[in-house]
Amino acid sequence: MRIVAVVNQKGGVGKTTTAIHLAAGAAEAGRRVLLVDLDPQSNATSGLGLEHVPGKSLYPVLLGQARALDLLQPSRQPNLQILASELDLAGAEIELAGLENPLLRVREALEPLRHDPAFDLVILDCPPSVGLLMTSALVAAEKVLVPVQCEYFALEGVGKILNLIERIKQGGLNPSLAILGILLTMYDARTRLSQQVSEDLRTHLGPQVFQTIIPRSVRLAEAPSHGKTIYEYDSTGAASASYRQLTNEFLSRL
Ligand code: ADP
Ligand code: MG
Question: HEC states along 16-71?
Answer without folding.
Answer: HHHHHHHHHHHHHCCCCEEEEECCCCCHHHHHCCCCCCCCCCHHHHHCCCCCHHHC
